[in-house]
């Protein structure tokens, strides 16, 4: 549904904001784009929505080339993407239902069709009772719901959400993410979420892309990314509570759940360690549910620092369990 091929954007300076970005998002996916400030996320959105042109490369949304479209073709291409952002920007002087109807009116839809679509969308976002309320009479989460309904009004096949929950509290964030999932399930839209919140990616995304300095550092289905357990993105998706640091001559072990296991099995991990003569204590640990799988991450401290842990590490790895001396992992910065 969304295909980016070698997309670069160079600003005068020169500043390379996007550097040969390749991205392929199939229809019906919820895809997260994460990256630190300055990674190129806003530039990517502007190029995707046709607000800015890439310096090179091609961007296709639903088969339409956003780069070469001009005039009415560009306007048509832009209608392929419904946009929701942190600042909902509803029209204050109009009720919830009139805000949702607004893009349909602009598109020249018939009054009866507008009424039917607005009813359907109000029901979808759970605001039928609030249809006559003005934005000032709605909570932040309810305003965001109106924003989502408005973005979907003209049947855009792609919903682009730019930091959709940054201004919301945890409970409201969860409701909005549930709504995004419902929208995808019911309407089959493809959803792109730009966010700096890993919790959003964990909770709702099927796949994720990490941008760094304008380049795609990692992209793929969430479970594949987590399967690459030593990678910085996997570690950010499963953050650890503070852990001890290794003292002189001691090694801490970092362990992550076995591939394919639906839940972590700590007993198995300790049994395997013991098989190689290693006794250990848990220094820190966490469990996150991602795509319906519980993923565990553990930091262990061997009781006898002088023990050789190489054979134990090998045994754990042979069972598909990620195991690494802490500090040795690729990309480890702690
Ligand atoms: N119009 C511009 N002219 C020159 N440089 C720009 C312009 N717009 C963005 N940049 C540069 O391009 C790079 C990517 O910026 P961009 O705003 O896309 O990052 P971002 O990931 O969206 O950051 P944030 O999360 O802070 O919004 C940065 O180095 C930025 O300074």
TrEMBL record:
Residues 2-238 form the ABC transporter domain. Part of the ABC transporter FtsEX involved in cellular division. Has ATPase activity. PROSITE patterns: ABC_TRANSPORTER_1, ABC_TRANSPORTER_2. This is Methionine import ATP-binding protein MetN. Keywords: Amino-acid transport, ATP-binding, Cell membrane, Membrane, Nucleotide-binding, Translocase, Transport. Homodimer. Forms a membrane-associated complex with FtsX. One of its GO terms (biological process) is amino acid transport. GO terms for molecular function: ATP binding; ATP hydrolysis activity. InterPro entries: AAA+_ATPase, ABC_transporter-like_ATP-bd, ABC_transporter-like_CS, ACT-like_dom_sf, MetN_ABC_transporter-like, NIL_domain, P-loop_NTPase. GO terms for cellular component: plasma membrane. Belongs to the ABC transporter superfamily.
């Amino acid at each position: 549904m969304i295909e980016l091929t070698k997309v670069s954007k160079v600003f005068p300076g020169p500043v390379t904001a996007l550097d040969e970005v390749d991205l392929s998002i199939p229809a019906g996916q919820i895809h997260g784009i994460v990256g630190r400030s300055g990674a190129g996320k806003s530039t990517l959105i502007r190029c995707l929505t046709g607000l800015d042109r890439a310096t090179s490369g091609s961007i296709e949304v639903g088969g339409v080339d956003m780069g070469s479209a001009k005039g009415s073709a560009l306007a048509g291409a832009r209608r392929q993407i419904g946009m929701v952002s942190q600042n909902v920007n509803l029209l204050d002087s109009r009720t919830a239902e009139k805000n949702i109807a607004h893009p349909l009116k602009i598109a020249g839809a018939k009054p009866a069709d507008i009424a039917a679509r607005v009813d359907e969308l109000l029901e979808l976002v759970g605001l039928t009772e609030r249809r006559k309320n003005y934005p000032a009479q709605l909570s932040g989460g309810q305003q965001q719901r109106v924003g989502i309904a408005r973005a979907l009004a003209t049947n855009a096949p792609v919903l682009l959400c730019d930091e959709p929950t940054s201004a919301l509290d945890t409970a409201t964030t969860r409701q909005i993410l549930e709504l995004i999932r419902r929208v995808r399930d019911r309407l089959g839209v493809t959803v792109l979420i730009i966010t700096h919140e890993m919790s959003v990616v964990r909770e709702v995304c099927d796949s994720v892309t990490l941008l760094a300095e304008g380049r795609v550092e990692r992209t793929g289905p969430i479970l594949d990314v987590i399967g690459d357990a030593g990678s910085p993105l996997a570690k950010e998706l499963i953050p650890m509570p503070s852990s001890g640091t290794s003292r002189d001559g001691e090694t801490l072990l970092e362990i992550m759940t076995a591939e394919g296991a639906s839940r972590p099995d700590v007993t198995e991990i300790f049994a395997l360690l013991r098989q190689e003569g290693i006794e250990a204590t848990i220094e820190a640990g966490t469990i996150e549910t991602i795509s319906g799988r519980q993923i565990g991450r553990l930091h262990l401290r061997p009781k006898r620092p002088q023990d050789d842990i190489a054979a134990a590490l090998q045994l754990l790895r042979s069972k598909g369990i990620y195991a690494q001396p802490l500090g040795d992992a690729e990309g480890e910065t702690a």
